[in-house]
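Students often ask why we bother predicting the structure of a whole assembly rather than each chain alone. The short answer is interfaces. A chain on its own may look different once its partners are present, and contacts between molecules only exist in the joint model. In this exercise we take two input lines together and write out one structure for the complete complex. Read the inputs first and try to guess which parts will touch.
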Amino acid sequence: MTYRSIGIATACALVASHAILPANAQTSSDAQAILAELRTMKQAYESRITALENKIIRMEAAKSTGATKPNSTPGGSTRTIRDNSFNPSIGIILNGKATSFSEDSSNIAGFAIGEEGERGKEGLSIDESELNFSANIDDKFYGSLTTAIVREGTEDKIELEEAYVMTLPDAGLPAGSRIKAGRAFWTLGYLNEHHSHADDFADRPLPYRAYLNKAYNDDGIEVSYVLPTDFYSEIGGGIFRGDDFPFGGSTGGLDTFSAFARIGGDIGDNQNWRLGAYTLRGNATSRATGEGAVTFNGDTNLYAADLRYTWAPTGNPREQELILQAEFFHRDEEGRYTDTGAGTGTVAYNEASSGWYAQSVYKFAPSWRVGARYSQLLAANVPTGLAGSALDNGGHDPYSVSVMGDWTNSEYGRLRLQYNYEELTKNQEDHQVVLQYIMSFGAHGAHAF
Amino acid sequence: MNKTLVSLTTVVLAAGLIAPPPAHAEIRVFACEPEWAALAREIGGDKIDAFSATHAGQDPHHIRAKPSLIAKIRRTDLLFCSGAGLEVGWLPLLLQRGAPARIQPGKPGYLMATDHIEVLEQTTVTDRSFGDVHPEGNPHAHLDPRNLPLLATVLQQRLATLDKINAEYYRDRAANFTAAWGRRLAAWEVRRSALKGMPVIVHHRTWSYMVRWLGLREIASLESKPGIPPTPSHLSALLQTVRTQPVKAILLTPYDPTGPADWLHGKTGIPIVTLPYTVSRDAGPGALARLFENMLSQLERAHGIR
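Now the answer. The structure tokens for the assembled complex follow.
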């Protein structure tokens, strides 16, 4: 060991001891020296950072003097159009109502309806709060899950509205075809595919309440195919479990199915239309309606047709738009009805009924719309055994007239005031007023036509 | 009977599968906006058939995914749009519904203009209390004419990939277009310097690319927040701003509502200038050049240059 190394070792020891004992009077000048050195280092780094920052500013200035192209390889684009930068997209719908009815009863003459088809609650209440997650699963599949939190009695319950997977165009199926499996609001008429928050009125029209218990979202699988024609044309069909209204009590047989066909097109630049025909067939086992009093067993077949027409005078539906929409439903049932409320016993039944609505909504300013709707049900002939039961309309066809006005602040928030005049049973005149808000946040996918 | 039915079905299916492609084997271009259809016609000539989903009077951010568009996109070879969220309300739906695999994101048949140019106003703010905010940035990219030759090149490459037989044809047309456009840009340079610093008010931030190209001074926008209709309080604040500094014009697109601009014009006399935002739906060759000529002349008039 040389003297030199001993010297370095001593110096190190001294520095170390000074560092440990900074209060030592003899060493304070050394500490000052170290601090000074640190300051110089800091200054040096700061000046280098400033130089780098200036360099970046200069580069950016040079870049912005002319348009540049970062990427031009065919197929090399990576940015996709999507509704949110999150994966999965998450969307929340909040929904609340203040409702007033002038009648205590809301029986529909000639129709025993399911629980969800009944008129809403009176007073202040929140409607279904929806939570949606959706994403492309990979290049071949897309998935979506929508739950609704609803108040049933005194409890908040989670209902699974939709949980489906769907093929993407890359899945290798023939162009224009798609398979959707799981639980979904299936293709049937116009409104059924849409979530109720997208509706133009605060409640669903009478045929949806009577025939679909608001909406048909059974478990199943649906195939559809857009034909390669100049105008829009699409055909499809599905097979379902048969557990959701108007069916029920399924044991898993493959006897519930649907089929549909749709066409559509333009009239000039600013008018569009779509026309569809649908059928949904299956059977019900112990389907309970009318608050549990009415039971049906048998085949129930539904036929529907819908027409939608939109006209945006300038081509911009955001500024001004007129929408006309109508749907017609026809139901054919063969089986046995029992109404314990009327004490009918089990009665053989083979009859048909129908219902329809027509509505018009006019947006006269970007944030303001007004609308009117008429809906009506035409009850079936009633077999003698069911006279006086819930299925006997007493010579009255239930109808409902609605007018509404709504204010849309942005794509994400809407307030609505609606008035309904309903005479669903003879002399049961119900004046209803609904004040409603529908707000959404998070990703909010585009709505179909 | 059953056998006949089976064989008949087989014949129909086989005929469908082996049917030759239609005689006119041209590339079908689905453009979301008329400017891209026009550019496609400049480069693709008679080898393509370009269709524009929107017309010049429409705000491409707010149209519906209408049935006729599903039918159109079903048979498309090349999709050419602005991107950056401009078509977010309807294009994803069309892409999912009926669009073929060859035009899905990442494929050569999927071309978004804003993927290939420098995008303005990109932000990380996604709070919707700031309005209809698009973090992807401003999509109105065709309003800076310097972007068009860049896109012509990308488009030519895509067309050549999709239709190899005519690759040379596309290359020649793109070269001619780019050269002619370069000469125009040089001619516009003189007029551009005369407009530099011209103070303007816009309705929506549609004009940012043009404002940057010409070096205009954007004093304010009539919308208080993007996508939210102008409020009375914002307009009266704007009136104060305008009284303290000169503004030469209120710039509108043909699809902007005219109410707020009319109000401000009535109070201050500042002229309203409705600039063409794009070309007509079936615009032929030269239409894009005329679009910028027209824009420059209107601005020059408002600025008192001619």
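Check your guess against this: Chain B touches chain A through 67 residues (CB under 8 Å).
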